[in-house]
Amino acid sequence: MDEKKKQACGPVKWILIGIAVLVPVVMLVLPLVVVVTQALSKGWECYVQAVTDEYTLKALVLTIEATVAAVVCNTIFGLCAAWAMTRFHFRGKKLLTTLIDIPVTVSPVIAGLIYILVFGKQSPLYSVLEKVGIQIVFAVPGIILATIFVTFPFVSREIIPVLESIGSDEEEAAALMGAKGWTIFTKVTFPHIKWAFLYGVVLCTARAVGEFGAVSVLSGHLRGKTNTLPLHVETLYNEFQYVPAFAVSSMEIERKGKTYTVDTLSEIKKNNPNTEIYFVMGADEITSVERWKQPEKLLKMCDFIAVTRPGFDNEEVKNKIDSIRKKYGCNIFFLEVPSLDIYSTELRENIRSGKTVKYLIQKETENYIADHDLYKEGTNNA
Fold this sequence. Notes:
By secondary structure, this protein is mainly alpha-helical. The chain contains 19 helices and three strands.
């Protein structure tokens, strides 16, 4: 009978072993091999140069800072919460358990949006924090808060089951023998939970280092300032894929006299004959494109993308776009996006009138505009 069972279990055994080996190989080992191969594909020197790049090192430092802050905060909270929930009875215990689990059930992107709603410009807290010089959104504190949020339950959730399983008998016996609280914890409790504690810290660290969604929403992708390693990797990947399409050009700045869009596009097409060009602009601007220099030539040089703007009738804009399409035989795409009340025209007017554009554009851009006296009265770079 035992021999028959062994024969029957033979195929099942090897099928299960095969699945157990195949899945980790395909999901973990193979991607790691590809990553390492691609990283070293251009030689060791290129790899070292990429790793020791200034922005890479800054991203690494920020990632370590956020990770350390998250691990320390969540370790302290995890130990306190686990002890309170397993050793004491109090009202709201189930509610606390639910709250601890919330970060696991909420999308990191949604978590980032929540923090923007709480600490962004539309929040009452924004003016309070601004007065004391604290910026959360698009700054390091926001990244740390987001990292703490997404790693919140890991330590406590590893320790709570162990504390529940060992009970409190040994701790009560130690207390009866005169041991103090700290002695009980270090000599009696911690030896039982040390591996669960270590596992929770490791999970928390790994999750913090690899966090992307919430940090991406809150960071603003400011290279060298708010880019963590995962965001920096994404930036490099996108640059390697789309450098020709999104390369920064100084041709307008270097061109003397007035500069027109049709001239800039002509130069871009001349320098990049095989590149597909898209011109992204506000829907309010596309309605006036016929008043630009040589519109019949301009509209056939590239594809236009008209992005919605708050305060404008989308149906009216669509009708105008259809009219321009028919008249010039051009490609214009209408794109609806979440609205931000920031206009390039408004920015230029603020600069001309001496008003601040702080927080409306990046600090580097603001400094560049000031250093080169752009958009001031009497200049031709409108």
